[in-house]
Design goal:
By secondary structure, the protein is mostly helical. It has a single domain, classed as TerB-like (Orthogonal Bundle). Helix content is about 60%, strand content about 0%. Helix 1 packs antiparallel against helix 7 and helix 5 crosses helix 7. The longest helix has 16 residues.
Length: about 140
Amino acid sequence: MRSYPRNSPEAAARIVALVLISDGQACSSEFDILRQLGAERELGLDPQILPHIVYTLREELLAGGYQAGSLISGIDDSTLARLMAEISDAALQRKVLRLCLAAARADGHLADGETWILNSARQHWKLVDGEEPSATKVARRLVG
């Protein structure tokens, strides 16, 4: 799978694209909500580039021998960690997670793959629903 420059619009968009394809296909409601939120503008992409990034990601996964219905199953934890590491800017991480959450919730159902990508982003970036965790929330999680 190709690498993108750290904190580039394409690297950020690929994380969103992972959520979009994680349940087997990107649906129109997901693209609609991202359009309403101005996702491409927010990520610094040229208009109409997000569908191209989704297509490119899908093609890379298919070229790797993964089946269309389980594209995301071809991504292991270390690959996902490498993709997440391409986004190190905290503000961009929050923006990407917010867009991912909106897309995942667009159809009213969180698929297992969507949940996996979202939880991975939260874990790698140490975020809670697109925001940095407050000291109180972190303390509560540590205590139990």
